[in-house]
Amino acid sequence: MVGWAMLPLGNLDVRGAPRIYASSEHGRRHFCGACGTGLFYSNAEFLPDLIDVQTGTLDDPGALPAQVHIQVKERVDWIRSIHELPEFEEFSEQIEEAK
Predict the structure, then answer these.
(1) What residues contact residue 50 under an 8 Å CB cut-off, 6+ apart?
(2) Which of 3, 41, 44, 57 is 20 to 30 A away from residue 64, measured at CA?
(3) CA-CA distance, 90 to 93, in Å (whole number)?
């Protein structure tokens, strides 16, 4: 799962030069060249002058909160009840106990 925010290309300020992978005829996926983290998705044919940003990579991920669910036709069934799963503040042995 990943959160995305669509922005006008001109509103994006990037430090460094992402690496770009042509994932389809028009789709481009942008990654950090140092660690491989996915950063952006662009498609000049279908989303001209826009770029999708993975919000978890922002300096302040909470600055752009989720507003809608999209692509739900393709989601796996268990995602509907994901909010019912146990929660842990951080990775610990409690996760093993919850299995």
Answers:
(1) 6, 7, 8, 9, 42
(2) 44
(3) 10
DSSP code at position 38: E
If you count them, how many residues does the chain have?
A: 99
Give the burial class of 30: count Cβ atoms within 10 A of its Cβ; 0-12 exposed, 13-18 middle, 19 or more buried: buried
How many domains does the chain contain in total? Answer: 1
pLDDT digits (tens, 9 = 90+) for 16-58: 899 999 999 999 999 999 999 999 999 999 999 999 999 999 8
Give the C-alpha separation, 98 to 85, whole Å. Answer: 10
Alpha helices in the chain (DSSP H): 93-98
The residue segments making up the domain with residue 90 are 4-98
Question: From CA 56, how far away is CA 38, in angstroms rounded?
Answer: 10
